[in-house]
Amino acid sequence: MKMNKLGFILILPVWFLVSCDYAYDYTYKVTNDTDSEIKIKVKTFRIDSTYSVSANKTQVLFVDDHGLEGSKGPYFEDVAEELVEFIVTKNDTLISTKDYLDNSSWDYNDGLYHATVDDNEFE
């Protein structure tokens, strides 16, 4: 009987600490609203990739987490904390003038960062 009480007393603080930490997925997705295929070079602290997105298609670029967080998440985080480089090209020569390292280029909703690329951002 004493062992059960002692075990419960030892397990209770561990259970409390573990139950307060959450890990959420954060998704970065881009919609190509241009008239041709685009290429997106993405560099984060964890990945370095290039994606091709066909005209009028949506592509998930990557899914990440911000580490252990509180129970009321997912939480918005400045995209510059995640993205090191984000370059969009069209027709292999035109580079987007939009700054995708700026939060205003992204819509955020419940762990989803979504950006839309359109023709008027290319010179």
The whole-number mean of residue pLDDT values reads: 85
Rounded to the nearest angstrom, the distance between the terminal CA atoms is 77 Å
Return the structural class: mainly beta
Secondary structure: helix percent: 10-25%
Taking pLDDT < 50 over at least 5 consecutive residues as the criterion, the unreliable ranges are none
Major pleated sheet: 4 strands, mixed
Number of helices: 1
Taken from the alpha-carbon principal axes, the silhouette is: elongated
Order of helices and strands: HEEEEEEEEEE
- Percent strand equals 35-45%
The total strand number stands at 10
Indicate the radius of gyration in whole angstroms: 21 Å
Neighbour order of strands in the largest sheet: 5-2-10-9
Question: How is this structure best described in words?
Answer:
The chain is mostly beta strands and 123 residues long. The protein has one helix and ten strands. A four-stranded mixed sheet has the order 5-2-10-9, with no helix packed on it. Strands 4-3-7-8 form a four-stranded antiparallel sheet, with no helix packed on it. A two-stranded antiparallel sheet has the order 1-6. β3 and β4 form a beta hairpin. The longest helix is centred in the first third of the chain and has 18 residues. The model has no long low-confidence stretch (mean pLDDT 85).
Short description:
The protein is mainly beta and 123 residues long.
Please tag this protein with its features.
elongated, 1 helix, single chain, mainly beta
Give the secondary structure arrangement, pairings included:
Layout (H helix, E strand, L loop, with lengths): L1 H18 L2 E2 L2 E8 L4 E7 L3 E6 L4 E7 L3 E2 L13 E8 L3 E2 L11 E3 L2 E7 L5
Parallel strand pairs: 2-10
Antiparallel strand pairs: 1-6, 2-5, 3-4, 3-7, 7-8, 9-10
